[in-house]
Amino acid sequence: MEEQRADDEQSRLKSFEDLKCWQACTEVRRYIMRLVKKYPPHEKYRLVDNMVRASRSTTHSIAEGYGRFHYQENIQFCRHSRGSLAELTDQLICSLDEEYITREEYHEGRELIKKATMLVNGYIRYLRKRKEEPRRAKGGRAVQEEEAEYAIWSDARMPDDEWDREQPITDGGQRITNNK
User: Fold this and answer.
1) Which of 25, 88, 139, 145 is the residue whose CA sits 20 to 30 A from 171?
2) pLDDT tens digit string along 159-178?
3) Is the pLDDT of residue 147 over 80?
4) Can you give the pTM of this predicted structure?
5) By three-state DSSP, how is residue 150 classified?
6) C-alpha distances in Å from residue 149, one per residue of 94, 159, 176
7) Smallest Cα–Cα separation from 19: which of 31, 6, 32?
8) Which conformational region is residue 69 in: left (phi greater than 0), alpha (psi within -120 to 50 degrees), or beta?
């Protein structure tokens, strides 16, 4: 039942904006933007700038990962978003220590970050699961790279532009294929 719900939700997604994790990160970003407006001027290019960048990175990373159309790349960008959420947590701690924010503001920010992190983690779990499913299950389509031959060089030497790709590799390289 829960799997069906996740599949139904994914099929309704038309944009990264429909993702619950992106929406939660947007709430975090908006909260941070309101919060930093009252910081002292000398922090404008220090803590404030870092907080603004980290808060924006949470949503930017999810959007970029969504646009990659590959599960592993999407997962990696979600990890970047999760890292930015952790960075914001540390910046809230600094803000509290420097007495730029109240305990209530700190706790509110922590709760928003916690919610966003949980949703990002859930989306990562979903992507991992989808990545591990059989490619052609349930009549779906799969993108698969055709078998090809690649050269791996065991030392720093690379062939020059005149290298004949039809000639066998000798002297430090080996041929491999991408099939498993």
Assistant:
1) 145
2) 554 444 455 555 455 555 45
3) no
4) 0.69
5) strand
6) 52, 16, 6
7) 6
8) left
Question: In DSSP terms, which residues pair with 91 in a beta bridge?
Answer: none
Q: What CATH architecture does domain 7-134 belong to? A: Up-down Bundle (1.20)
What interhelical angle do 71-97 and 20-36 show, nearest 10?
Answer: 30
* Residue 104 main-chain phi, psi, to 5 deg: -65, -45
Quote the CA–CA distance of 37 and 84 in Å, as a whole number: 20
Hey, where are the domains in the chain?
Answer: 7-134
Region 103-122: mean pLDDT is 97
Alpha carbon distance 173, 176 (integer Å): 10
pLDDT of residue 13: 74
Cβ atoms of residues 85 and 113 within 8 Å: yes
Q: Which two tokens stand for residue 80?
A: 């970047």
172: left (phi over 0), alpha (psi -120 to 50) or beta: left
Token pair, residue 7, equals 């599949």
Q: For residues 117 and 161, which has the higher predicted lDDT (pLDDT)?
A: 117
